[in-house]
Give the backbone structure.
Amino acid sequence: MTLTDPPQGYPATDPLVTLARQLLIEIGEDPDRSGLQETPERFARWWRDFSTYQAGRVETHFPLSTDGQTVVVSDIKVWSLCEHHLLPFSCTLSIGYKPGSHVLGLSKFARIAHRHAHRLQIQERLVRDIAEEISKVAGTDDVAVIGRGEHLCMSMRGIRTSALMTTSVFEGVFRDYGPARDEVIKFALPNG
Ligand SMILES: [Zn+2]
């Protein structure tokens, strides 16, 4: 094996490998220099892993009556890719809902969040997609999702405004300003 061989087991015929070599050339690099020789294969593998991510089953739920309690799961951190720049953004999510006929297992919130993050996204749609799936899986319209994101496409370019962006979706009982929405915001943003 020489230094120019691809990482073991990675198919050199993957078109993403060719694309990455071309990208290196276009930005003025020598793809054959020491340090970059395996970069196209690593690039290809990373993109394939990202785009075929499996978050696991999300169907699990438990029959339970919660007498109208609000359930909030907060501080779920996901990484996604901004579809405008193909650069990462992190998003810290809080998901609240009032269970209908059943409650969701705790791990399901994170799985749903990660699954929707593992594609090209904008933060507004990420939050919306998660809210819609929680609503469907939990069988309730009463869903709130709040996301706080930091976008490398903003922070790396040194824009002097805050690089933190907050987006939210409030549906069902959380849609109108009032006690239900206040409660879910208090749980979601305890220091906010
Ligand atoms: Zn961007």
Remarks:
- The helical segments are 15-26, 39-51, 106-117, 123-138, 152-155, 179-188.
